From TrEMBL:
InterPro entries: Translin_C (IPR016069), Translin_fam (IPR002848), Translin_N (IPR016068), Translin_sf (IPR036081). It comes from Tursiops truncatus. Keywords: Cytoplasm, Developmental protein, Differentiation, DNA-binding, Golgi apparatus, Isopeptide bond, Magnesium, Metal-binding, Nucleus, Spermatogenesis, Ubl conjugation. There is a cross-link at K279 (Glycyl lysine isopeptide (Lys-Gly) (interchain with G-Cter in SUMO2)). This is Translin-associated protein X. Residues 1-32 are annotated as: Disordered. Its main location: cytoplasm. GO terms for molecular function: metal ion binding; sequence-specific DNA binding. One of its GO terms (biological process) is cell differentiation. Mg(2+) binds at E129, E197.
Amino acid sequence: MSSKEGSGGFRKRKHDNFPHNQRREGKDVNSSSPVMLAFKSFQQELDARHDKYERLVKLSRDITVESKRTIFLLHRITSAPYMDEILTEAEIKLDGVRQKILQVAQELSGEDMHQFHRAITTGLQEYVEAVSFQHFIKTRSLISMDEINKQLIFSTEDNGKENKTPSSDAQDKQCGTWRLKITPVDYLLGVADLTGELMRMCINSVGNGDIDTPFEVSQFLRQVYDGFSFIGNTGPYEVSKKLYTLKQSLAKVENACYALKVRGSEIPKHMLADVFSVKTEMIDQEEGIS
């Protein structure tokens, strides 16, 4: 054994047998070859797609934040005299959210939406939750997916404002109109999140002396829960995962309605909210133990 291969030495690598100048010949690649030009075009396409994905993620984050602020604003509705003012302010905020959605629609113009759906789904779900919450406060009913999509048709003739008259895709390209359609999955997940806001609205309304709202919310949540139960495990994984949270919200609202019906005359109105908050904590603890 040679000294180089001894205990303190090192073995000679195979590529050390080749001259140094021959090992560097691989770097002299013809940049104008068809293969290199093709890979450069692939690089530019992938970079452009990645940049667009990042822009959509930022827009989705802005849509989520503004939609949450709208929901917080709608929770401030405590009495009829202030309802119109808060609903008007909420509509202004939602118009600002739709301007962000317009930017998303412009980014997705000519693209397959499903390739970028993961980047925008969080914002769209939060927008559905805010719009459906506002619609429930106004009408005590659930807004449909078609009604939401009609609000997401934009035209440059209105300086970015919504155009309420729907048009075909061919007319959209001619008139400079953009549209973004909420997918059924986004709609279902947004409605599932709505149930949590309605549960909070129910408890807050009791504290303000509103006895009718809890029963209206309870009936509405039962209908929503029945609809989700029909979907079951056949729908997307996220839908079945949120079904448990929906059931929790329904149980809390039904518990509030039960206390109002049975013990409503015994408890003063200014103490009802405290009683319900204690019962809600007890339900949460029991569910955590089980």
